[in-house]
Specification:
alpha+beta, Ribosomal Protein S5, domain 2, globular, binds L-homoserine
């Protein structure tokens, strides 16, 4: 039996729409072994055709030409669904990893990223899920960046969902030159600030003009949460992925409370998907 964990991810980091993502220490745990028939436990999508783990596993078997071995898969899911924390990516990466382990293939992260991106459509969640840390990724390049461990991170996780497909519909198809320049410069400065613990420049992560201005309306508590965060010294307040969660970054410890919204301190996961030796459900 193989046991492994896959981290949650927070995509976009504000100014890095569809190209930046950060792995977080909230994990989905998988127990996988060969079986006579496919058995899935702990999955929300009981229908196989909607099960992203199964879809990714089959796609990987095809990609690596391994043939399809039936599996028993037990999932202990800690990543909340449709909250902008990469729950779909975690299932996809989990399915690809299962194919590599069961067939005793080399863990080739480049190939994992290629398959995962085909399934997910954009690589900003799947890349950090595979590599850990902060990833900047486009169609043919990947930069895996180590974020300073002096930053403090926290999440507000609302009870309600925001579907990525809906959150992509509200975006504008065209950008002004000014807004493009703003996002490019802020991304460059912001990434460096994350690496070097630059407490003056980190605020540029708040400057997004591509998606946050349109998406914040989909999160009814956004303005209130932002107000509370900023009033309490938080330096950066962002929509995590396409929402509904909100990611906060500060040089100081973050401790906040909001009615009906979960608050959780998180850390950067540095490893990405990883096998575990001693772990029991
Ligand atoms: N970059 C994606 C988006 C992440 O913001 O739509 C969500 O999967």
């Amino acid at each position: 039996m193989y046991k492994y964990r896959v981290p949650a991810t927070s995509a976009n980091l504000g100014i890095g729409f569809d190209c930046l993502g950060l792995a977080l220490n909230i994990y989905n745990y998988f127990y996988v072994e060969e079986s006579k028939t496919f058995v899935f436990k702990g999955f929300m999508d009981l229908d196989l055709k909607d099960n992203l783990f199964y879809i990714a596993y089959l796609k990987s078997c095809e990609y690596f030409k391994t043939g399809v071995k039936a599996l028993k898969v037990v999932l202990k899911a800690n990543i909340p669904i449709a909250r902008g924390l990469g729950s779909s990516s975690a299932l996809i990466v989990g399915g690809i990893y299962a194919c590599l382990l069961i067939n005793k293939l080399e863990i080739n992260k480049e190939k994992m990223l290629e398959i995962a991106t085909i399934i997910e459509g954009h690589p900003d969640n799947v890349a950090p899920c595979i590599y850990g840390g902060l990833c900047c990724v486009n169609n043919d390049s990947l930069l895996n960046i180590k974020v300073s461990n002096k930053w403090n991170f926290a999440l507000f996780i609302p009870e309600y969902e925001v579907k990525t497909s809906e959150a992509r519909k509200v975006l504008k198809r065209e950008l002004s030159l000014d807004d493009s320049v703003n996002n490019i410069s802020s991304a460059i400065i912001g990434i460096e600030a994350l690496k070097t613990f630059d407490i003056n420049n980190i605020k540029v992560l708040n400057n997004d003009k591509i998606h946050e201005p349109y998406r914040k309306k989909l999160i009814k508590d956004y303005e209130e949460c932002r107000k509370v965060a900023m009033a309490n010294g938080v330096k950066v307040f962002l929509i995590s992925g396409s929402g509904s969660s909100m990611l906060m970054i500060s040089d100081l410890p973050i401790k906040l409370e909001m009615k009906d919204i979960s608050f959780v301190n998180v850390k950067v996961d540095q490893k990405g998907v990883a096998c575990l030796k001693n772990y029991s459900l």
